[in-house]
Write a structure and sequence with these properties.
Length: 493
């Protein structure tokens, strides 16, 4: 009775507020960040932050995984703070951080944005992502006594065979390291031709890189997720989920050269005297000249150059002599140069003042991608796919006057390129009619499957309407077949 007497004496507004807070309480999913505490809290240590909206279906589906990640990370990664930002409540904060989709997860270290998580939203992948950042910022342990040298051994592609990936095994294999993946269809003629070469590539890359393939007839949803529009599509995917389409030649030597370079892609420090030899060897290379005290720009360029996959190579040097050699002001802490055509005269230069602020990494990445090709490229069956999009498997061999394109005539060549880009030029297919029909039907079935999964109730309603219309249509046809003079008559007896 005493308890109810206390409740009776409490103000009504206090009771209502308490009940509201109790009903709206959310499960423990990490620290909740707001515009008031975001900068102060994230200024120290590693922070893995989920930007979400309670109205987002993907966010609600991901909530149990995030909750489990918070609980497990308290043991597996205690130095990492996991937090959330409710973008429905703090929209200005999310806009300020460049968030345009939900859920979005980003890693921060001492207030600096280390980048967005682009992998699968599965616990093994999330834990692997967190561990990589913990290892990157943790001080290295003291070196142990040197053991007896033993040959290095890799734990990838131990058998030298092509991995057969499925929707369920894809993420687990990706967590082991980067993969070079072929998305194909069994009926595709180009895929059949590439198959033996792909098996040879797996043997050559034994112990270095996983070579894999996905059958898009059996795993259409997975191919749809990777935006596969033509067969075969070759994609290099890093362990973090970043992808880069391979558009080079499909001979074994070319594929092997790409795979070896991509799997060992890194920013390489050099001395000033090494530069001349590297320019003679490489048709295109990048050179980052920086002060010895500025190591942040090296890390930024390393992350920004990931889509290049080692082509062109990126070199760094802190030799002051190079500042003088390339007439870079001594006040600059760094400059990025593009050297092409075996010439030491830079074709393009990205100075420090042109790439500053929060979007510096994006600016550097854009510049690297824009300057990756030589000044001139010989148009061959191998380089064509670098210059033109080959996903539709079409080509052009005539100009606007229906004459064969003359590569020796700039007027004919550029007029044809402009007309093709504008959709005013007739194209030819590299697939036969059966292959085009099969690809068309496959794309339609994939689109239908996606529509049914995305809008199940709408699809069910349309199906019911279809059968009702079919029923009445058949009934009407049967009625029209009955003679108009047919009548039921009474018996004469």
């Amino acid at each position: 009775m005493h308890f109810f007497a206390v409740l009776r004496d409490l103000p009504l507004s206090l009771l209502i507020t308490s009940l509201a807070l109790a009903t709206n309480a959310l499960p423990v999913t990490g620290t909740q960040l707001t515009p008031d505490n975001f900068a102060d809290l994230t200024a120290n240590g590693l922070w893995f932050i989920e930007y979400f909206s309670p109205y987002c279906g993907h966010c609600r589906h991901f909530e149990p995984t995030w909750k489990q990640l918070v609980e497990e990370s308290a043991t597996t990664a205690p130095t990492v703070h996991l937090a959330q930002v409710d973008c429905a409540v703090h929209g200005d904060l999310c806009t300020d951080k460049g968030i345009n989709s939900y859920p979005t997860m980003r890693m921060y270290n001492n207030g600096d944005d280390l980048g967005r998580y682009t992998g699968y939203r599965e616990l093994p992948d999330l834990h692997a992502f967190i561990k990589r950042h913990v290892d990157a910022v943790s001080p290295p342990p003291p070196p142990p006594p040197l053991p007896t040298p033993t040959p290095p051994r890799s734990n990838v592609n131990l058998d030298g065979e092509v991995l057969k990936l499925t929707s369920t095994s894809f993420a687990s294999h990706l967590a082991e390291g980067p993969m070079f993946v072929k998305f194909f269809a069994p009926w595709c003629g180009h895929c059949k031709k590439l198959a033996p070469v792909w098996r040879q590539l797996a043997k050559h890359m034994r112990g270095q890189l996983n070579i894999a393939e996905v059958d898009c007839d059996d795993h259409g949803a997975l191919c749809k997720a990777y935006d596969v529009k033509g067969y075969p599509t070759l994609v290099y995917i890093t362990a973090g989920g970043a992808r880069s389409d391979y558009n080079g030649g499909r001979k074994l030597e070319q594929l092997r050269a790409f795979a070896e370079k991509a799997s060992s892609a890194d920013v390489q420090p050099i001395e000033a005297e090494e530069l001349d030899g590297l320019v003679d060897e490489n048709e295109v290379l990048y050179l980052l000249i920086h002060s010895a005290a500025d190591t942040n720009i090296v890390e930024t360029v390393q992350r920004a150059s990931t889509p290049l996959l080692g082509s062109p190579s990126v070199y760094t040097s802190d030799d002051p002599a190079l500042l003088t050699r390339f007439a870079i002001p001594q006040t600059s802490t760094w400059a990025l140069l593009a050297l092409k055509d075996h010439d030491l005269t830079p074709t393009s230069l990205l100075p420090e003042r042109a790439a500053t602020g929060a979007a510096m990494e994006d600016k550097v990445r854009k510049w690297l991608l824009e300057n990756r090709l030589p000044t001139t490229v010989e148009l061959t069956q191998d380089t064509l796919v670098v210059i033109a999009d080959h996903q539709r498997l079409v080509y052009y061999d005539t100009d606007t006057t229906d004459s064969h394109i003359k590569l020796t005539s700039t007027t004919s060549l550029f007029a044809a390129v402009e007309a093709a880009a504008a959709g005013k030029l007739s194209y030819k297919n590299s697939e036969n009619a059966i292959e085009r029909l099969a690809r068309y039907l496959s794309n339609k079935l994939t689109s239908f499957e996606t529509y049914v999964v995305t809008y199940p109730w709408r699809a069910a309603f349309l199906l019911v309407v279809f059968f009702v219309a079919l029923f009445f249509g058949i009934k009407r046809l049967i009625a029209d077949d009955i003679p108009s003079d047919y009548r039921k008559v009474e018996r004469l007896d």
